[in-house]
Amino acid sequence: xxxRKELKPDSSPTAAFGERLRRMRDAxxxxxxxxxxxxxxxxxxxxxxxxxxxxxxxxxxxxADRTFGSxxxxxxxxxxxxxxxxxxxxxxxxxxxxxxxxxRLYEIGIIPGLLQTPEYAKVLADSAVQRGSITPEQADExxxxxxxxxxxxxxxxxxxxxxxxxxxxxxxxxxxxxxxxTQLDRLAEFASLPNTMLQVASFDLGERRPFNLPVHLLTLPxxxxxxxxxxxxxxxxxxxxxxxxxxxxxxxxLQAVSLTQAASVDLITxxxxxxx
Length: 276
Fold this sequence. Notes:
The protein has helices at residues 13-27, 32-39, 43-50, 58-68, 73-83, 90-97, 118-130, 136-152, 167-171, 176-191, 241-257, 261-274; strands at 102-107, 160-166, 196-201, 215-219, 225-230, 235-238. It is of the alpha/beta class and 276 residues long. The chain has 2 domains: 9-83, 434 Repressor (Amino-terminal Domain) (Orthogonal Bundle), CATH 1.10.260; 90-117 and 153-274, 2-Layer Sandwich (Endonuclease, Chain A). Strand 4 (215-219) and strand 5 form a beta hairpin. Helix 4 (58-68) packs antiparallel against helix 5, helix 7 runs antiparallel to helix 8 and helix 10 (176-191) runs antiparallel to helix 12 (261-274). The longest helix has 17 residues, at 136-152. The radius of gyration is 22 Å and the shape is elongated. It starts with 12 loop residues before the first helix and ends with a helix.
């Protein structure tokens, strides 16, 4: 076949997905246009996925599974592609998060993902696209992945959630006043839930603030704990007691010096008025 690009499935999860898609298409003797008609896209889209120029979305993977009768194999393989836009350790953290009985979060600069509105999350993802750090498809998947995380916590026995946010999270305007108004309202609603505690670490803390990076602490059903920390480019998950306990102690110290929930909600309300 003329101009048929050689695929290298070992080079990346995206390439592996594309190679498998081509292999199964070839086995059935279908052209790219014929497969596209069955999946519901264009032949050029099939070509881009097969050659790794376009990562598969979850919807595309599900359509491929239906077309080939492959159960959920394409969907599961697409997860590896989606996770390439996530920091190391984070996918494993999310699996623990979905079954945690207690979640403790600390965030700087942006609202924690589990408390973000879809509009706020989309602005952040679109900004990453503009910087060239992710593709538009990965941005869509990032927002979908976040909403899936949020939905997983809306279960019958929801976890207890303790959230401390740096004051910069509510002062930093993301997406303009309308997006921020909705987002600040979401924080106030979160604070009113029976299984939540929301506190603001005010700028006045100065050097008393124990963390300079985001921290995620989980208590699992067997009462073991896990901690996930990250920088701009690296993430790290740890379940060793000698690594978790110092951070848990520091988290309690942070809660002790942060604003109470009532004072935090008052501050959020004050900031909200300033965004009108």
